[in-house]
């Protein structure tokens, strides 16, 4: 049927070419189109109206060969036409136009054959070819490449993908089949750097992101080969060498060697290091405000130092900072380097200092919720002061650290007054409130769930939005197998616009895990004030008024524990001092944190105690990103006025946060039933060494030792407890995971044996 249509078309076209109408095109008036007949070679999957809409040729218009040619192009351009022919027949005093079309097949089904190593559902999401849509050759090829890329990205380097189309002329439909021949998953087992002499392979492997397979590859995806990543690795290696002074370095295309006939491969990076370049001389020209020697003191890349492009950029920034700190923010620095012999460079900095600038106005924009004063109080420069670029940079960081904004831009602009610059602060706000639901598990308090509402940019006076004032608000409700808690807190970091934090909280805590023979309930409020002394030091003053109840005491508990039953009222004041130089509060690599707290109870209530607590940690960053942590604590508490220290205020050790080889609170003086009753003196030390295993995974070895004695200021070691152990620190997508296993060495008050697992798993969603 299809053949007869196109034969008829060819014969008719020939007749038209010899007809009088053909002559009319060469000198006579063109005939008028009297009708257009659309005929289908196969099923009519496209309406006649859509076909005519894409044609210039129309009833009532003169017939034109040029128009017909354009019509054919337009119909093919729709992407729905497989074949088309247009020709004319004489009709009275005009012409009849016949359009014969064969439409593209409609996709009936898309099949994926040979897929076993990946999920077909994931592949189908990639495909452009879908059932009930027109078949497209371009889409078929694009889909084939997408499937292939998907496999290659997951380490299946030898995968092949073919596509076949099975057509049904009767229904003008097609079944598309992607035939996948899955190769074995290519796994990187070793990485070599051929030609690398000046750096160890271990150091170079840290530069690239491609890594070898390990026991956690199913999570970290380590060991996979990705072409895009290999290209990035080559650039990273080249950048590394350049920054180390090897300006002639060449990093070739990575090579892959199979280990026998297996899918295991060795990844090889060919490297030609060349020679290391050094600085011969450094010259500074154009200085007036500063001397050349003052500028040179700020430079790291002096004579004899390794020369690198990164070092040059770093020194340019250092010069900009030293001038910018004096208000010369328009300083221009032009570096020049000249060869001074083999692998030697003479460096010259030509400086145009400009003029000193002062702050004219501070313009703030972009803050629709946050009050201007919240932003202004974080700025380290003010109108009338020298435009100190270093302080401006510090201001930018302080605003970013508020975590109120997605973006913070601070820049100067010229004014009509010479030497005066406006300081422009442009912010892009983000959501600062959150509603979190979470769950967690630990070896101490078992399974627990919570709901928490926080707003870090709270404003108690801004009803009903309650945002924009820079206050911190938090409320948390959690319920678990061994605890029930409710907390609501509010902090004003700038009380009465002074750099003085004031805050408070209401709380309710009900715990079953503190003791095996009683439950404890605490509820009340705490108010505090906090003031920074300098960049690293601050003081804080707390006042707490709470009720403490001991209830559900076991019938077999000792008389000492039973005597603690009932409600206690504690009114306590606690001044404290903090010294903190840590580089990060999350994964600390270096720095020190120390806190001294003094506490006194007895300003009302029936708890009469006083004491102190001193805890300090020091972090040492060692080679290969290993970290040595030294932690110690000393605490003493005493009663007065004829009162003993209640059991809930006494001191304990044991558990995940101190002596990890022992049960929670089990390092303590005990009663006749061997139940912990706490002591009045505590001292402990912890030494921990952590090391990277793979990305997001660190190992740990540790030693803990400590004492808890019944009497105040009794530091005797007759009941010393100690342990040693190993641990793992995981930074997973579900949240942080910490696992420790400790084995007691000195048992203190304990007679048991064996080690203890302590672990914490927690996440928010």
Task: Break the fold down into its secondary structure elements and pairings.
Layout: H1 2-17, H2 20-24, E1 32-40, H3 48-53, H4 65-77, E2 81-91, E3 94-103, E4 106-113, H5 120-126, H6 137-153, E5 160-168, E6 173-181, E7 187-194, H7 201-205, H8 217-220, H9 227-243, E8 250-251, E9 255-258, E10 264-272, E11 278-285, H10 292-297, H11 309-324, E12 332-339, E13 344-352, E14 358-365, H12 372-376, H13 389-401, E15 405-414, E16 420-429, E17 433-442, E18 446-458, E19 471-480, E20 483-492, E21 501-511, E22 519-532, E23 537-551, H14 559-562, E24 566-580, E25 591-605, E26 609-622, E27 626-639, E28 681-694, E29 697-709, E30 721-732, E31 735-747, E32 756-764
Parallel strand pairs: 1-3, 4-6, 7-10, 11-13, 14-16
Antiparallel strand pairs: 2-3, 5-6, 8-10, 9-10, 12-13, 15-16, 17-18, 17-32, 18-19, 19-20, 20-21, 21-22, 22-23, 23-24, 24-25, 25-26, 26-27, 27-28, 28-29, 29-30, 30-31, 31-32
Which bin fits the share of residues in helices?
Answer: 10-25%
The quaternary structure here is single chain
Compute the average pLDDT.
88
Number of domains: 6
Task: Indicate the CATH class of the largest domain.
Answer: Mainly Beta
Structural class call reads: alpha+beta
Strand content bin: 35-45%
CATH topology of the largest domain: Porin
C-alpha-based Rg, rounded: 39 Å
CATH second-level architecture of the largest domain: Beta Barrel
Q: How far apart are the first and last residues' alpha carbons, in Å?
A: 63 Å
So how many helices?
14
Please give the largest β-sheet. Answer: 16 strands, antiparallel, barrel
Low-confidence stretches: 1-26
Number of strands: 32
Biggest sheet: strand arrangement: 17-18-19-20-21-22-23-24-25-26-27-28-29-30-31-32
Which of globular, elongated, flat, extended, rod-shaped describes the shape?
A: extended
CATH superfamily of the largest domain: membrane protein fhac: a member of the omp85/tpsb transporter family
């Amino acid at each position: 049927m299809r053949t007869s249509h196109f034969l008829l078309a060819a014969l008719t076209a020939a007749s038209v070419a010899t007809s009088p109408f053909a002559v009319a095109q060469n000198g006579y008036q063109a005939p008028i189109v009297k009708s257009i007949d659309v005929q289908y070679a196969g099923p009519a999957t496209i309406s006649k109206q859509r076909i005519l809409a894409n044609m210039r040729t129309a009833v009532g218009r003169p017939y034109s060969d040029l128009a017909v040619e354009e019509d054919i192009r337009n119909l093919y351009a729709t992407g729905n036409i497989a074949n088309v022919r247009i020709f004319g027949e004489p009709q009275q005093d005009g012409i009849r136009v016949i359009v014969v079309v064969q439409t593209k097949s409609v996709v009936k089904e898309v099949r994926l054959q040979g897929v076993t190593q990946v999920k077909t559902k994931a592949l189908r999401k990639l495909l452009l070819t879908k059932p009930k849509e027109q078949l497209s050759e371009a889409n078929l090829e694009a889909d084939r490449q997408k499937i292939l890329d998907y496999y290659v990205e997951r380490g299946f380097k030898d995968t092949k993908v073919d596509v076949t189309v099975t057509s049904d002329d009767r229904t003008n439909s097609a079944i598309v089949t992607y035939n996948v021949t899955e190769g074995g998953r290519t796994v990187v087992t070793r990485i070599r750097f051929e030609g690398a002499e000046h750096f160890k392979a271990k150091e170079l492997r840290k530069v690239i992101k491609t890594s070898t397979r390990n026991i956690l590859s199913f999570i970290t995806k380590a060991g996979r080969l990705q072409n895009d990543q290999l290209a990035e690795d080559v650039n990273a290696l080249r950048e590394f060498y350049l920054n180390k002074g090897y300006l002639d370095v060449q990093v070739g295309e990575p090579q892959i060697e199979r280990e026998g006939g297996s899918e295991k491969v060795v990844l090889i990076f060919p490297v030609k290091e060349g020679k290391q370049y050094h600085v011969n001389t450094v010259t500074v020209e154009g200085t007036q405000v500063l001397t050349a020697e003052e500028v040179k003191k700020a430079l790291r890349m002096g004579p004899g130092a390794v020369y690198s492009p990164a070092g040059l950029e770093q020194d340019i920034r250092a010069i900009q900072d030293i001038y910018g700190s004096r208000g010369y923010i328009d300083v221009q620095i032009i570096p020049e380097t000249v060869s001074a012999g083999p692998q030697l460079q003479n460096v010259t900095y030509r400086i145009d200092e400009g003029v000193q600038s002062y702050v004219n106005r501070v313009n703030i924009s972009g803050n629709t919720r946050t009050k201007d004063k919240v932003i202004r109080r974080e700025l380290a420069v003010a109108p009338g002061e020298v435009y100190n670029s270093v302080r401006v940079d510090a201001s930018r960081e302080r605003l970013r650290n508020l975590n109120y904004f997605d973006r913070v831009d601070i820049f100067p602009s010229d004014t009509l007054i010479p030497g005066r610059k406006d300081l422009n602060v442009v912010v892009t706000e983000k959501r600062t409130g959150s509603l979190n639901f979470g769950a967690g598990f630990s070896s101490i308090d078992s399974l627990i769930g919570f709901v928490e509402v926080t707003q870090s940019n709270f404003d108690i006076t801004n009803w009903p939005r309650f945002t924009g004032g820079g206050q911190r608000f938090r409320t948390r409700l959690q319920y678990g197998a061994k605890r029930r808690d409710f907390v609501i807190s509010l902090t004003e970091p700038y009380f009465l616009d002074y750099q003085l934090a004031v805050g408070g909280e209401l709380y309710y805590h009900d715990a079953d895990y503190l003791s095996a023979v009683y439950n404890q309930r605490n509820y009340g409020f705490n108010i505090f004030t906090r003031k920074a002394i300098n960049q690293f030091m601050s003081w804080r003053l707390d006042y707490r008024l709470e009720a403490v109840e001991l209830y559900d005491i076991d019938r077999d508990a000792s008389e000492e524990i039973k005597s603690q039953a009932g409600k206690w009222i504690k009114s306590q004041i606690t001044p404290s001092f903090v010294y903190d130089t840590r580089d990060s509060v999350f994964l600390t690599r270096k720095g020190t944190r120390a806190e001294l707290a003094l506490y006194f109870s007895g300003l009302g209530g029936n708890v009469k105690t006083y004491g102190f607590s001193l805890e300090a940690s020091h972090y040492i960053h060692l080679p290969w990103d290993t970290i040595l942590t030294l932690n110690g604590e000393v605490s003493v508490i005493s009663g007065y006025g004829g009162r003993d220290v209640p059991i809930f205020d006494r001191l304990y050790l044991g558990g995940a946060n101190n002596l990890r080889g022992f049960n929670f609170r089990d390092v303590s003086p005990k009663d006749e039933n061997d139940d912990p009753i706490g002591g009045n003196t505590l001292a402990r030390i912890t030494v921990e060494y952590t090391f990277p295993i793979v990305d997001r995974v660190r190992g740990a070895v540790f030693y803990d030792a400590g004492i808890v004695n019944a009497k105040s200021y009794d530091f005797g070691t007759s009941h010393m407890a100690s342990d040693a152990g190993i641990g793992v620190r995981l930074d997973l997508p579900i949240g942080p995971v910490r696992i420790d296993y400790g084995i007691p060495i000195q048992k203190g008050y304990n007679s048991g044996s064996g080690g203890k697992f302590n672990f914490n798993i927690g996440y928010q969603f």
